[in-house]
Design goal:
Elements lengths: L1 E3 L5 E3 L8 E3 L18 E11 L5 E8 L2 E5 L7 E4 L20 E7 L7 E6 L2 E5 L7 E2 L9 E7 L2 E9 L11 E4 L7 E2 L8 E7 L7 E6 L2 H5 L9 E5 L6 E3 L13 E4 L5 E5 L2 E5 L7 E2 L21
Antiparallel strand pairs: 1-2, 2-3, 4-5, 5-6, 6-7, 8-9, 9-10, 10-11, 12-13, 13-14, 14-15, 16-17, 17-18, 18-19, 20-21, 21-22, 22-23
C-alpha cells in the first residue's frame, strides 16, 4: 500500500501498514534529484492500476503539486515523469484557490473498463485524459465543463460514464455541485436537484449498481474543512436512478461539528464513511448507518480525514 504526504513525499508499506518506508522522495540537503525519483515532495493523489507492471504488481500513478504525473512499474522502486501538463492549452489559467500561484492533481481515476484510460482532475483546471496508459494527454473541455472536480469515478457496469463531485458552485454559480458524463468526459450534465448544500467534496458509487450514489457536501469550503471549535458541518446525500438527491442522516452523527468525511464502497455494495467522529457503515445503499467499534481518541475529533483504505 502507498501513502502520499504533502511535504514528505511518497511512502510504501509491504506489511499492511505496520511499517512504512519513504520511496521516490526528496533528496537530502545539497543533493540533486535522482533521475528515477518523484521530483516533488507534495503528493496529492495516488492510484494503483489493475494493469500489471514489470514486477507483477499494479502500476502506480502519482500526482503532485505543482501538477505533474509520475508512474512506477516496479512497485515504487523507481518512477518516471509522464507529464507536467505544460503542453495543455489552458495550463496558464490553472490555480488552486488557497495558493493561487500553483495547482495540483486532485484525483486519479483508472477507467473501470480499460486500465489504459486514465483520468486526472486538476484543482482548478478541469479534466485531463489519457487513452494510452499515460503516454499522451488531452483536455476534455467542451461546453459547460466542470473545472473543480474533487473526486471522479467510473463504473464497470456503465462504460464511458463518469461521476464527479464539484466545487464549481463557488467558481461559477450554485447548481454545479455534481455532474455526470456519458461519453468519457467530453460533455457533462449537472444533476443537482435536491441538493441544499453547494460544496461537494466526496463521493462513492455502489460497484453493483451504477445508479446508487452517495456524496458528502457542505455549505462552503471553510465549514467543510476547518474544525473551528466545532463550527464545521457536513451533509450526506443519496441518489438512485431517476431520483433527486435526498439527505441521509439515520445513524450518522449530527452534521454540525462533523468535518467533511471520506466515502468508500466495497465490492459487496457496502458503503463506509470516515469522519472526525468515527467510521460508519451502511449495508442498505446509504440510507441507514451504524458506527463501527473502533477506539477513538479525543484528538481525532479535531482532525481532518483525507483517505481511507478498506482491506477485507
Amino acid at each position: 500500500m502507498y501513502c502520499g504526504t504533502f511535504d514528505r513525499g511518497l511512502w510504501r508499506s509491504k506489511d499492511g501498514g505496520s511499517s512504512w518506508e519513504a520511496i521516490g522522495t526528496l533528496p537530502s540537503f545539497g543533493e540533486v534529484f535522482p533521475a528515477n525519483a518523484i521530483h516533488m515532495g507534495a503528493i496529492t493523489a495516488v492510484s494503483v492500476s489493475p494493469a500489471k507492471g514489470d514486477d507483477g504488481n499494479g502500476i502506480v500513478y502519482v500526482g503532485t503539486e505543482p501538477s505533474a504525473m509520475f508512474v512506477s512499474k516496479n512497485g515504487g522502486d523507481n518512477f518516471e515523469l509522464l507529464t507536467d501538463y505544460r503542453q495543455m492549452p489552458s495550463y496558464s489559467s490553472w490555480f488552486f484557490p488557497q495558493r493561487t500561484y500553483t495547482h495540483h492533481v486532485k484525483h486519479i481515476e483508472i477507467d473501470a473498463n480499460n486500465p489504459e484510460t486514465i483520468y486526472t482532475t486538476i484543482e482548478v483546471g478541469g479534466l485531463i485524459k489519457s487513452v494510452d496508459g499515460g503516454m499522451t494527454w488531452t483536455e476534455e473541455k467542451e461546453g459547460n465543463y466542470p473545472q473543480d472536480i474533487h473526486v471522479l469515478k467510473s463504473h464497470c457496469n456503465a462504460p464511458n460514464r463518469l461521476y464527479g463531485v464539484l466545487g464549481d458552485s463557488f467558481l461559477k454559480e450554485p447548481g454545479q455541485e455534481y455532474a455526470e458524463s456519458n461519453d468519457g468526459g467530453k460533455t457533462w450534465n449537472y444533476i443537482c436537484s435536491g441538493l441544499k448544500h453547494h460544496y461537494a467534496y466526496q463521493m462513492a458509487v455502489n460497484p453493483n449498481d451504477p445508479e446508487n450514489i452517495i456524496i458528502a457536501t457542505s455549505s462552503n469550503p471553510h465549514v467543510a474543512h476547518d474544525y473551528n471549535n466545532g463550527n464545521c458541518e457536513s451533509f450526506i446525500y443519496k441518489k438512485e436512478k431517476n431520483g433527486s438527491w435526498a439527505e441521509m442522516n439515520a445513524g450518522l452523527p449530527t452534521p454540525k461539528g462533523t468535518i467533511i468525511p471520506v466515502l468508500k464502497a466495497t465490492s459487496d455494495g457496502t458503503f463506509y464513511l470516515f469522519s472526525n467522529k468515527g467510521v460508519y457503515q451502511s449495508v442498505d445503499g446509504g440510507s441507514n448507518w451504524t458506527s463501527l467499534e473502533i477506539p477513538w481518541e479525543n484528538r481525532f475529533m479535531e482532525q481532518h480525514p483525507y483517505e481511507m483504505l478498506i482491506i477485507k
